[in-house]
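### Sample
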Amino acid sequence: MISNVAQGVQSFTSNAFLVDGERTVLVDAGAGFDVVSAIRDRTDALDAVVLTHTHPDHVGNLSDAVAAFDAPVYGFDVEQQGVERELGDEETIRLGDHEYVALHTPGHKDDHLCLYAADPGILFAGDLIFQNGGFGRTDLDEGDREALIRSIDRVRERVGPDLRALHAGHGPSIENEPYSHVELAGEMARQR
């Protein structure tokens, strides 16, 4: 089961997805709300935190989650504050009951990862792809529009039309034809 523990939060935060199952994992920690209580409302233990990237809105609550649950933190770049264990491109990690492959997808930020599980058809897209063709900003440090387009194309080729759910870093999760939103993001990112 996947739930957004940041649902309804009014402060500036990313989504923070709790993936329950064999291995309970938090995908992104969000910022500016009591993530520990939000997690404890759903489970007593947290096996790991996986970061799509280390922008402040995704990691603001990280130290609280780690302190409360003593969970290791996985991310692409162990040089980034808070990241303890490297999750490299094409490496797999268990979230809930499924194996996800980490896809290095720079363009919004150099350490950006998407997480994809082919069997259930689930994609955690971080700030790469949003609903209705939205895509991550490229006007911040480490932003690069051409790299972002390549990353969206890589994800589009990897996931395919049988994608069942896309969980974005901001906005709603998409369970109705999510692949079309991936395709549209690629088109929109190419427009100047």
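The mean pLDDT is 96. This sample (MBL fold metallo-hydrolase) is used throughout the tutorial notebook.
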